[in-house]
Amino acid sequence: MLPIVTPEEMRAIDAAAPEPVDELIERAGAAVARTALRMLGGGYGRVVNVVAGKGNNGADGRAAARRLRERGVHVRIFEADACPPVLPASDLVIDAAYGTGFRGFWSPPDPNGAPVLAVDIPSGVDGLTGAAGSGVLPADRTVTFAALKPGLVLMPGSVYAGELELADIGLDVTKASAHLVQRSDVAGWVPPRTADAHKWRAAVWVVAGSMGMLGAARLASSAAQRSGAGMVRLSTPGVGSDPMAPTEVVGKALPSVGWAGDVLAGTDRFHSMVIGPGLGRSDATTLSVREVVAKVPIPLVVDGDGLFALAWSGEGASGVLRSRVAPTVLTPHDGEFSLLLGARVGADRMLAARRLAADTGAIVALKGPATIVAHPDGRVLVVTSGDERLATAGTGDVLAGLIGALLAHGVPAFEAAAAGSWIHGQAGWRGHSRGLIASDLPGFIPSVLESLE
């Protein structure tokens, strides 16, 4: 995992460093120079424009400029507050104008067709939230120091940052409470199938769907199967059987109302449950959902209409969830988050997810271009493996089933939510760049899992 720290945390880390500031600037400058030389494909005879501000970010750029000159690079330095509208022709522009502490507006120069290397963060991007106005110079690559900043992994800052490179300059970031999930992390969390595996070793019960919303149940069930669940039971209240459900799914009928007791009486052989996708929002349904969520003794994923049921509980989501003894994963999008917490997500998405996790005692996977997985103790895992292909109806149902299967395999809820989100994103990458639909995703999950072995 790659550490992520806020600008405020980074300032504290800098202040606690035993090395003087000048030494840290030299290390940062050396890292920028190394990256610049790789981007240039060499040094001698190349031309680089450095846009440098007055703070430490500018000092990093000037230190890099000095090292590049030593390698035969022709370097021009432009003051950030006195740049020409269009920079003279060059092979590379280094943006060292402003760092994570910048506030206000900057009118960046036109790089004149040259690729851009940003120092620490593209100037004008908010280091905490990723927010950016029109005054940002998009970078082809950003080299950042010691730890990633939230603004580099959250939209739109992640787009402006281009390719990320994390440089170790000797600062201690071991106390970081947020991390970016990598492939190797997921490979370590997802257990292999053992030689003595059998169908009841990882059984998932999906309670989902309603008349007119049967697709949600099918998607969640199929995803759980393709993610390694040995047995998937599907129950859609009031629907005896669905002939379009995956062939291998085992159906269990539930009455249209008052079905919580039937569910709670039949969980003995199951290792996780997914509840909510497409269930509907009638009073009777929300009442049954709340009872199951409060009392079911196995790990649980609550998605879609299940989240609505929790939000409309008279005691609130936290009142229902606090009584649970088994792990719980909530998978809200921004609208569902607002229902659950009674407030909008806001610009600081990591803070928002932490607030909901602390309020409910559940693991929260706040879905978005970067999915924020928050633990009630304040830890955060950020997943950026997906892209806009997942912005289509039903992909959240797939994610719920995927996480449910990982829980059934014994993956702890925090890691299951993050691993599921990462696998979900990678499955999307394997699909068409246009026209990908949710039912395509389960078929790609096995190849993602195989790539982890």
Commentary on this structure:
By secondary structure, the protein is α/β, with parallel strands linked by helices. The chain has two domains: 173 residues, Rossmann fold; 269 residues, UDP-N-acetylmuramoyl-L-alanine:D-glutamate ligase, CATH 3.40.1190.20. Helices cover 37% and strands 16% of the residues. The chain has 16 helices and 17 strands. The strands form two sheets. The chain has an eleven-stranded mixed sheet with strand order 1-8-17-16-15-14-13-12-9-10-11. The chain has a six-stranded parallel sheet with strand order 3-2-4-5-6-7, with helices on one face.
Topology overview:
Blueprint: E1 2-4, H1 7-16, H2 21-40, E2 47-52, H3 56-70, E3 74-79, E4 92-96, E5 116-119, E6 141-145, H4 150-153, H5 157-161, E7 163-167, E8 178-180, H6 183-189, E9 203-207, H7 214-226, E10 231-235, E11 250-251, H8 260-264, E12 272-275, H9 283-295, E13 300-302, H10 305-311, H11 316-321, E14 328-330, H12 334-341, H13 349-360, E15 363-366, E16 371-374, E17 380-383, H14 395-408, H15 413-429, H16 441-451
Parallel strand pairs: 2-3, 2-4, 4-5, 5-6, 6-7, 8-17, 9-10, 9-12, 10-11, 12-13, 13-14, 14-15
Antiparallel strand pairs: 1-8, 15-16, 16-17
Helix pairs in contact: 2-3, 6-15, 7-14, 7-16, 9-10, 10-12, 14-15, 15-16
